[in-house]
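Revision sheet: structure tokens.
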Amino acid sequence: MIRRSRPQLGALFYFLGMIMLGLYFTFAAVQGDYGLFKRIEVQATGQALVAELASLEAEVDRMENLSRRLSDTYLDLDLLDQQARDVLGMIRADEIVIR
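Predicted:
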């Protein structure tokens, strides 16, 4: 009697299940909610927000400087003249306006 040995069906399903489970966890580690792609996206967003914060801090510093220069304790006459020209549209008597 010749007996051929073939793998058991249960062992085949076990290894197939392990392969599928490994593929699932690999996919989740790369593209899941906490995967590599999401981490890279969050880091890029963080860097963009840091750059925006630096830009906004520079704008705030500029505005604080302008406010201080127009305050009662320190009055910059050139800045006051510039603001009056820009906001009120004032010109001096010896100037010519070209539009």
